[in-house]
Amino acid sequence: MSAAAARRGPVKPPGRLLPILVVSIAIVCIWYVGAYFMNASLVRDAFKRQKVEPTIEQMIAATLAMDRPLLPAPHQIATEIWKTTVDQNITSKRSLVYHSWVTLSATLAGFISGTLLGFLLAIGIVHVASLDKSLMPWVVASQTVPIVAIAPMIVVVGYNLMNGQMGLSTDLSRFIAKAMISTYLSFFPVTVGLVKGFRSPEILHLDLMRTYSATRGQTFWKLRLPAALPYLFTSMQVAIAISLVGAIVGELPTGATAGIGARLLAGSYYGQTVQIWSALVAASVLAALLVWMVSLGGTAVVKRMGMAR
Amino acid sequence: MNPRGRLQPWLALLGLFAMVALPLDSADPAIMIPREGWLGWSVLVATALAIVASIRAEQSGTAGVLLAIAAHLGAFAAISWLPMLAGHAGPGFVALVVTSWLLAWALVSQLSALPPQKGFDATLLRLLIPFLFGLWLLILWQIVVVVLKVPFVLIPPPSAIGARIATSIPTLAADFRQTFLKAVIAGYAMGCGAGFLAAILVDRVPFLQRGLLPIGNLVSALPIVGMAPIMVMWFGFDWPSKAAVVVISTFFPMLVNTVTGLAAAQPMSRDLMRTYAAGYWQTLFKLRLPEALPFIFNALKINSTLALIAAIVAEFFGTPIVGMGFRISTEVGRMNIDMVWAEIAVAALAGSVFYGVVALIERAATFWHPSFRT
Fold first, then answer.
1. Which of A146, A241, A288 is nearest residue B308 as measured by Cβ atoms?
2. CB spacing of A129 vs B2 below 8 angstroms
3. Which of A61, A159, B213, B252 is the most exposed place for a label (fewest CB within 10 A)?
4. What b/e sequence results for B336-363 when a residue is b if at least 16 CB atoms lie within 10 Å of its CB, and e otherwise?
């Protein structure tokens, strides 16, 4: 109890770097051990077929260097990523940077339009009572719907519409279809966060605006919007992470040949585990970067407005 | 009352005028809608009555009832005349639809302007208004799709989706059993349980809290559905691999939320527990876990939808020939879009019910929390 009480005290929390480092190293170690045991039976079978009795060193070396392991070792993934990023021309179809860019562009397009859509919806919900009562429950319900389940349909239908009937190019159709999924996924957190934010000014402040005989527009621009900005940026962090998921899922059903989702799908068809893992790592790095950039932008704006804590 | 709310009856009056002035379908005399028929006449009369009542008395029960009758009679008429009109609806028909829709909107405006009451009435109102919105979404969807002859593969009309649901209940039930009852429920229980236990462990060991939590925060923003192909490789094609994806995607939200919740207890209450000489576990069970419940339920609610999404997406990467994700991806390929929509409707319903059940349990368990106190 005393230890628990002591760490709850108002003392400045100790640095995080060391614990994170230790935990990360522990994860990598567990990963290596896991890779050995996951791949051990495959390797043993391979040795048995060659009628060789492997030593423990041979086993370790073989399990950590398999062509199609069940669980690739971290260094294998690192090598693969190095090969597909640094060693490749960026425009090459083998380059992971190229695939990441394909996914990233759709993510950003969908994120921007989703944020705009969420913004407009939130303004409507805050200002029109009947929209608040009738639309808001559906906006919430739309989140309980497995949206990603609709994704393949939106992608296929949108793709066919744009590619077949409107005669857009294949790549452009795929791009717009993916961006549509991202839009659909990312508008929700923005709407919900902004509705909360637009309603966050205190009654006192709203009344003050009324005594100034401010119009609705003035109240919105000068009070509601600034008050909502912290909420907006928090929502945008959620939204950009989820639009990346949308773009990746959007690449699964149209037989896309480029993008992180396509890499995942191709990897799973051909059993290229290392390729799957490197695509996953790329997606993770991308997600972390995107969230980090949004939070950086948010902090900068909030600080500039003098609202930083 | 909102001044713009008064606009709809006047607009509807304009629409009514258009309906009277124009025949309902001017395109083809052979199938001209007989305004003399009982349906046509009653639509006109009810609409006129409703408009007059809602203009004269802004908020009265009679006006509301008349609005409801007129709007839905109009919608009923429009839908029952639809087959005759497909592809060549005249301006009269458009006027009918628009008028009914404006009346429905006026009805919703009236309902949402009602003062919030307590108890049964308020609950009814809170359910009725979104229900009307959804109903009109379906009505307009049906009318627009049929009148504009939108290709079936693009968006099927709701009636076709309903018919498809009715005829393929066994398939839908099998998919539901495979995806929801096996993968989602099992994965949800394991993922949330493991996240909870890990949170207790992390809370007990401060070093882990500082080291694991930032990583947990990072992971919860990652596209975890990407793990699906790997889980299929590890656990095979059947539901365990989907459950595994569900476990991974529900674990981190639960971990992060529970840890936040465990830190939520007021220092004052904690000091009180200390003066009682309560041990770690007593403090945990009697003070900190109850205080953490809102956060835990928040994670449970987030996870309820996340779990379904994860399971469905995981099925895109290989599955036996049953399951919601499998059905969606194969039927899309065969352009049976109505089946896809039927599956989506089932998924939406299951997701909403799941969420609703968790929310109800939350209300029962955290009735003391400020957000539920009235």
1. A146
2. yes
3. A61
4. bbbbbbbbbbbbbebbbebbeebeeebe
As given in the structure block, the two tokens for residue A128 are 């029109």
Q: Which of B109, B313, B352 sits opposite A148 (nearest CB)?
A: B313
**Confidence (pTM):** 0.74
- How many angstroms away from the CA of A182 is the closest CA of chain B? 13
Alpha-carbon distance B207 to nearest alpha carbon in chain A (angstroms): 6
Model confidence pLDDT, tens digit, residues B215-237: 777 776 677 777 888 888 888 88
Residue among A4, A141, A145 whose CB faces B347 most closely = A145
ipTM summary value = 0.70
Owner of token pair 């207890």: B265
The DSSP symbol for A98 reads H
Question: What DSSP character marks residue B368?
Answer: T
CA distance A125 to chain B (A): 13
Angle between helices B239-262 and B289-315 (to 10 degrees): 150
Mutation target to probe the A interface, by most A beta carbons within 10 A, among B128, B133, B208, B234 is B133
Give pLDDT tens digits for A61-81. 777 777 777 788 888 888 888
The set of residues, in sequence order, having a beta carbon less than 8 Å from that of A181 and lying 6+ positions away, is A110, A148, A151, A154, A155, A246, A247, A249, A250
